[in-house]
Specification:
By secondary structure, the protein is α+β, with helices and mostly antiparallel strands. It has one helix at about 1-45, and strands at about 50-60, 60-70, 75-85, 90-100, 105-114. A hairpin with a 6-residue loop joins strand 4 and strand 5.
Length: about 110
């Protein structure tokens, strides 16, 4: 009976730790995506918006967002959004192209990294 109880306690402990890790990972991922969306909103309101790094609160998570204009070439915009929750770091990188004539923005790539 004792071995069964110890095994059950270890199993439940592992399950709880894995569940918490999954939850923290999803929260970090969602927060990083929210930061990237905020950068797109900033660019929609102000086409020349740029920032080496600003912070944004998403729930209880702080996200760091950077927006670089004309990087690495003219009319390209790079956005980086990073969130950390309980040691789980998630980063979203977005590359946008600006039409030189109309200033319309087009998403070239949206990448998520862990």
């Amino acid at each position: 009976m004792g071995v069964l109880a110890v095994t059950l306690v270890l199993f439940v402990g592992t399950f709880v730790n894995n569940s918490f890790g999954f939850q923290a990972s999803v929260i970090a991922d969602t927060a990083a995506n929210s930061g990237a969306q905020d950068a797109l909103l900033q660019l929609d309101r102000n086409p020349s918006f740029a920032s080496a790094g600003y912070t944004l609160s998403v729930g209880s998570t702080t996200v760091t967002v950077a927006v670089f204009q004309n990087m690495p070439i003219a009319n390209l915009i790079q956005v980086s959004s990073t969130a950390t929750v309980s040691g789980y770091v998630r980063t979203v990188g977005v590359t946008l192209a600006r039409n030189a004539t109309t200033s319309q923005l087009t998403v070239v790539s949206w990448q998520q990294s862990q």
